[in-house]
Amino acid sequence: MSPLQIFKLAEENKIILFTDEVENALKNSVLKNRKVCVISVAGIFRQGKSFVLNFFLHFLKKKIQKIEKWIDPDDKLFLGFSWKSTTEGITEGILMWPEIFLTETESNDEIAIILMDTQGTADHTTSGTQSASLFALSVLISSVQIYNVKNHLNTDHLKNLQVFTGYGGTYCENSPEKPFQKLVILVRDWEYPFEYDYGFEGGKMLLETVFRKHRESQQEELTTIQETIEENFEQVGCFLMPHPGKEVATNPNFDGDFDCVDDEFLGCVETFVETILAPENVVPKKINGEFVTVQGLLELIKMYGNHFKEGKQLNVKTIYAATAEAYHQECLNQAVDEFSKQVEQCDSFLKADEEKMKILQNFETKVSKMGTKKMIRRCKERLKQTLNGVFEKHRPRFEEQGLRNFCKKVFSYTTGSST
Ligand code: GDP
Ligand code: MG
């Protein structure tokens, strides 16, 4: 098994979307109606993103096998997302692991986990570059965005984040909901544990310091980086990770042997993965406050893919339109599923019609939260037609039931029976 390419960068600023493979993985999955948590790692190339993502994969694989001690010195790291020791031949794009895992949440719900790796080569500093588009796509699609940086965290890193999240922010401007769920800044090869300790606590203190420094240094800007990031993400965290050791960093033949990785790193990466995937922390993807299913995620990927494929630059209007379209499609799918289930229980036209009305009403409240009036009207029309189609399939059954009820009534009338 190997990772699937979802998006790939091509010439002239185009982003190619690979629909078939993604459809196979998402649409045909038995988990297609589950809520989904998408964990995506993004950042500059050659800074250990794929390496750390493999720890998530390793954890989830061991969990299926019910192996609790998932990091064993005698074992090797599962190499799902390959890492390269050269800078050559890296495809820029977004990859996805084809297996979808299930994990429990605090409310005993089971939720699908999808892992995504963003491979960029350049620094994501200017909003117009392709790498920036990739990063923005990663943020838009994921529910846990891990932003990987090396050695230190500075205002430039945060300014980049501000640019990407700014795009998202606008689509929820009139909504009380924040557009994105969780941001975790992961600082690799952290060198000052005596100042801020490894882990989430040290990370939190470092992040507060960087935010404060930026606040103090700025004079005219009205919105601080902190405000933008906090307005856009429901949760923001930072984790300080130690160096993995010389073997990992420099040996081109390193093959994932845990024995060759520094214990301190292993201890920290264990905490990192276990904390993010803990039942009380696992974060489902939402659009406008509504949960997205695995199938809905496919819609989202397709909508964004279509907007970028012509080489269009990222812009707030198209992102808003793509998100709203995917959101409408998800609401529509859910309404059709719901009606298909309900109509099975109905034994008359009247009952089924009542159900249809209820579902339409509920749907209307939901879709009206996003999109232009025209889009909303189109979507409502589409739902009506689809529901009518479902209704028609049941027509013969209702007619038969109606006839039976009618005969029963006639029979009771002619025989004087009260039943
Ligand atoms: P990516 O391009 O960001 O996905 O980076 P990779 O995961 O492919 O790793 C690039 C190189 O850095 C590989 O040789 C890894 O063995 C090494 N590496 C992985 N994690 C770390 C880390 O935390 N620190 C250092 N210094 N090197 C790492
Ligand atoms: Mg990589």
From TrEMBL:
<dbReference type="GO" id="GO:0005525">
    <property type="term" value="F:GTP binding"/>
</dbReference>
<keyword id="KW-0547">Nucleotide-binding</keyword>
<comment type="similarity">
    <text>Belongs to the TRAFAC class dynamin-like GTPase superfamily. GB1/RHD3 GTPase family.</text>
</comment>
<dbReference type="GO" id="GO:0003924">
    <property type="term" value="F:GTPase activity"/>
</dbReference>
<protein>
    <recommendedName>
        <fullName>GB1/RHD3-type G domain-containing protein</fullName>
    </recommendedName>
</protein>
<feature type="domain" description="GB1/RHD3-type G">
    <location>
        <begin position="33"/>
        <end position="281"/>
    </location>
</feature>
<keyword id="KW-1133">Transmembrane helix</keyword>
<keyword id="KW-0472">Membrane</keyword>
<keyword id="KW-0812">Transmembrane</keyword>
<keyword id="KW-0342">GTP-binding</keyword>
